[in-house]
């Protein structure tokens, strides 16, 4: 290591083998339109995407982040603090779509691991509806709303999530009762209505959940937009219109905007990484990490540290990337050595916020260049991370490596590392692209 040469400056402000701290954004919403929203093909539906609890979220759409659950303890927040001063363990983003006739605009959290789009309806028994920003959806006010009958083929598609079979209400309506890995539960009427994605893009008979009961840790969201693989997700229900294709770009900061697109864009490069199906997690998306480099050099780790196929879960809400400990340890060791010996940072005490970020430094007053970090996925798809995809800056006296370890043989590629990339999913074609600098 001692014989490594100094990095050299490139014309774009980066160093070869290094990443330089960009200017920090102000706490106001930028009016800049993301590059990826401009001049898109007319067959695409392009929607604005903003981070919850941010300057860019309209006051009526602001939502409190979910409170950390037991499952979240190892998932480290890498985002601004919420209104209580606690860091977010998830980073959620919202889009707005219309339900019913006439349409009722609802703010929905984007979720690539969920199978059912749902909104909260005003049919909660004894007025037990969970508090949310904005009014609840009233199905009786929509001329196009209808319940899905319990004894119907459409109701039977809920069976994978309800092993005992479809649940019937006393009036013969199809009921869903779903619980996630954190123990959060939603229950309601499996329904259909018109979904308005954009003023001229309507999806008739869109199947969704009209939720009247929630248990667990929910924020103030109106609902959730399911982008998973299941046949009840919006991806499957709009397959004839959008070819099972979508993309998103998470903004670089809470004071800027990103976007969600629905539809296939054939202008992208042919170089993609395969989307892998894992039978034990049928609704989720997996890819394969082939290599991780620090300062331009691949780190060495035991190849058995990863699963042979589908070793990385790509997610739309988990804050930071998690690596198997057998991979994280040599990765973090190399990064720390370079920071201390090549880039001349001083060690800092890790934050006392309950997070697992433990590789920390005191920022320089000027010239905060750091080692570059890149991931190579199958088919030699290389993703070069920017400064804020590598470290979390707490303040002028503390910054930490924005990765953590897990006792598992599967990684999670979190959204902090995905920011500013347009991540393009061709679900039917089993392909995924990373397009840099799109928002």
UniProtKB/TrEMBL annotation:
Peptidase A1 domain residues are 93-435
Q: Which UniProt keywords apply?
A: Hydrolase, Protease
Asked if the record carries the keyword Hydrolase, the reply is yes
Q: Where is this region: Disordered?
A: 59-79
Report the GO molecular function annotations: aspartic-type endopeptidase activity
Q: Which GO terms describe its biological process?
A: proteolysis
Know the name of this protein?
Answer: Eukaryotic aspartyl protease family protein
Q: Which species is this UniProt entry from?
A: Striga hermonthica
